[in-house]
What we know:
Elements lengths: L9 H5 L3 H22 L3 H5 L2 H10 L6 E4 L6 H5 L37 H14 L7 E6 L6 H10 L7 E7 L10 H11 L1 H16 L2 H12 L1 H8 L4 H4 L3 E7 L3 H14 L3 E6 L7 H4 L27 H15 L3 E5 L9 H6 L4 E3 L4 H13 L3 E7 H4 L3 H9 L6 E5 L16 H5 L6 E3 L4 H11 L7 E4 L13 E3 L2 E7 L10 E6 L4 H13 L3 E5 L3 E3 L3 H8 L3 E9 L4 H11 L6 E6 L9 H7 L4 H14 L1
Parallel strand pairs: 1-2, 2-3, 3-5, 4-5, 6-7, 6-8, 8-9, 9-11, 10-11, 14-15, 14-17, 17-18
Antiparallel strand pairs: 10-16, 12-13, 13-15
The structure holds thiamine diphosphate (TPP), 1-deoxy-D-xylulose-5-phosphate and magnesium ion (MG).
Magnesium ion binds next to loops.
Amino acid sequence: xxxxxxxxxxxxxxxxxxxxxxxxxxxxxxxxxxxxxxxxxxxxxxxxxxxxxxxxxxxxxxxxxxxxxxxxxxxxxxxxxxxxxxxxxxxxxxxxxxxxxxxxxxxxxxxxxxxxxxxxxxxxxxxxxxxxxxxxxxxxxxxxxxxxxxxxxxxxxxxxxxxxxxxxxxxxxxxxxxxxxxxxxxxxxxxxxxxxxxxxxxxxxxxxxxxxxxxxxxxxxxxxxxxxxxxxxxxxxxxxxxxxxxxxxxxxxxxxxxxxxxxxxxxxxxxxxxxxxxxxxxxxxxxxxxxxxxxxxxxxxxxxxxxxxxxxxxxxxxxxxxxxxxxxxxxxxxxxxxxxxxxxxxxxxxxxxxxxxxxxxxxxxxxxxxxxxxxxxxxxxxxxxxxxxxxxxxxxxxxxxxxxxxxxxxxxxxxxxxxxxxxxxxxxxxxxxxxxxxxxxxxxxxxxxxxxxxxxxxxxxxxxxxxxxxxxxxxxxxxxxxxxxxxxxxxxxxxxxxxxxxxxxxxxxxxxxxxxxxxxxxxxxxxxxxxxxxxxxxxxxxxxxxxxxxxxxxxxxxxxxxxxxxxxxxxxxxxxxxxxxxxxxxxxxxxxxxxxxxxxxxxxxxxxxxxxxxxxxxxxxxxxxxxxx
Length: 629
Ligand SMILES: Cc1ncc(C[n+]2csc(CCOP(=O)(O)OP(=O)(O)O)c2C)c(N)n1
Ligand SMILES: CC(=O)[C@@H](O)[C@H](O)COP(=O)(O)O
Ligand SMILES: [Mg+2]
């Protein structure tokens, strides 16, 4: 029986000998490769924090000491050491979440997978400990070098540094990468500190050598050590952290459990805010990950553990269409530039960057900065395209509103992973963008239904230079092309069903499909027609502002059904109903979409079914509404 299976709580970890901790690390790595290759997940990041997490649980006592993981994708090892070793259902409905989960364990605090928030959480928890006079506990926040490029992290550091008594340890998990190598001044500074690994070795050598010469040597070392700050200036440029008033410990080899544990114990003993700069390697110990140039197996699907190759080849999807079309646009328009927030490959900008490196900008995990910088680029005569996952634009709403829209900036936002994503949990579903952006004056939003409408929407969007435009599409594979029978003032009619002759009064239904939900709308329309109804199914590509022709169509039917992959409250359907009411249209509406709830991790299909977005659900609700008339 392996050592890992004997670990049921952090106390068990603290009882291990150094040799046993080294063996535990080997077993954990084997476990991660074996299990995550079967389920998919964040293999690379977790392979990089095996020794670090063991050391944390040995130097501190969770849950009395609070552990906070930034982004949370690197918390699998933490789960293994806190009583959760059944990974068969990882990221699956009713299985382990891929992120910390309070419902799973008292050892988990921050569930949201949005980066750069951990230090603010830690600041707040540490303040609460101070106010509540809980003087016997620490807060330990693990933040990656990538997350450290997010502005919120620096807002927190500014606050944390303000109080020397804050028992707060910031572990900078520095593997030099977000997905790709981390960019920017912060990353460069960490590089500088990283390369002075010799600094610690130099000091260690000095202490051993001088102490061997007896009292004079010990005096000399103490004198030198007293000069450490000055020495550090020489060997390791003065850390920006210490300039801010934070003690800095490191850089430490994050794959040496004993050294990391010693550094953490030093930090704990300090009793104030401390940075522990830990050097790790994403994908450590698994050759396919170590050799993965793109992103070191940041997030993998099911893979063959021996080779790291995907079990199923990735299919041509929405992202690939964007990747292809934006290059074509870039060839035609030299003013088009692209911005990514540390996700060049995941959002499909790698080909554009390859061909137009000088027109591609990776701003780090800094969506707010990306948006306002894009407004600046538009002012400078460019047409910026900001490509992010839909859910991550949430944090830049004010920048969209007050920098892009207020200044009528021709910025195009491309929102990948819009709608239900599923297995990454509640904070990853791109379900808020349409309800959020519908109140931005002048903003235009497109929800294409297939490859052709996506390409057209992108080309239209980059031609709008006096207002922000948004093109949103879901994660994964494209559906079949959906041709329009006709286009009526921006509203594509994709199907008509007439039950032979004039439909009896009260039997005309308009089904409005938004984006990826057009498939459900088409299937529902066919079923409704089988009930003797006259049905028109429409799929407007540009859904915000609501097309006037769509409002008119609503008035020409006895029932309107809207289906959207976003929050229903304040969504496209709600906006259409509101516009119709304002124009005296009395047609009843039925809205299918997502609730104002956080949707637990499950597959997209499971959530589509659970949220009643299937054709049969649309039909059931439409017939019920007609029966009430
Ligand atoms: C606000 C936000 N933007 C983008 C992402 C997507 N994302 C998830 S993990 C990651 C990289 C994080 O890098 P780092 O903090 O260095 O952690 P590592 O994976 O290297 O351990 C990114 C960009 C996110 N989770 N949150
Ligand atoms: C943690 C994080 O935000 C990303 O790594 C996310 O898991 C990526 O999801 P996709 O697999 O949809 O790219
Ligand atoms: Mg990193």
